């Protein structure tokens, strides 16, 4: 924590407990699952990726798009689910890439300096 403000470093160094290191898990960006009749995933279940602040947005958009697909195919649930999944995979790929990039910035070497550069456009 060289170069950190003492007040910020103290939040970690003067804690009553040791830090708990927890792994972040994610699926490859191009991960797809085979269609299972009558079943699909949405929200965090469909987007296992490092946290980047987009989980709730993805879940709400997934729900809206799934509803739209079901309404567009009222007699063919499988067509609706296939259409939803195709659009969902394409839509979420960029956000997954952003999450992986942000994870590398926040958890890598010189994280504070890299985050400052992101936030200041540097």
UniProtKB/TrEMBL annotation:
GO terms for molecular function: FAD binding; monooxygenase activity. The keyword NADP does not apply. Gene3D superfamilies: FAD/NAD(P)-binding domain. The keyword Flavoprotein applies. Signal peptide: none annotated. Keywords: FAD, Flavoprotein, Monooxygenase, Oxidoreductase. It comes from the Bacteria. Pfam families: FAD_binding_3. Residues 39-90 form the FAD-binding domain. PANTHER family: FAD DEPENDENT OXIDOREDUCTASE DOMAIN-CONTAINING PROTEIN, MONOOXYGENASE ASQM-RELATED. This is FAD-binding domain-containing protein.
């Amino acid at each position: 924590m060289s170069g950190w403000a003492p007040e910020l470093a103290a939040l970690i160094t003067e804690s009553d407990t040791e830090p708990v290191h927890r792994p972040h898990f994610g699926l490859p960006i191009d991960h797809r699952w085979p269609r299972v009749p009558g079943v699909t995933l949405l929200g965090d279940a469909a987007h296992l990726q490092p946290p980047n602040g987009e989980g709730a947005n993805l879940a709400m958009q997934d729900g809206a798009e799934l509803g739209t697909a079901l309404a567009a195919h009222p007699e063919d649930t499988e067509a609706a689910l296939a259409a939803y999944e195709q659009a969902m995979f394409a839509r979420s790929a960029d956000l997954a890439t952003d999450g992986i990039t942000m994870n590398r910035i926040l958890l890598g070497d010189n994280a504070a300096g890299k985050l400052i550069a992101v936030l200041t456009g540097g």
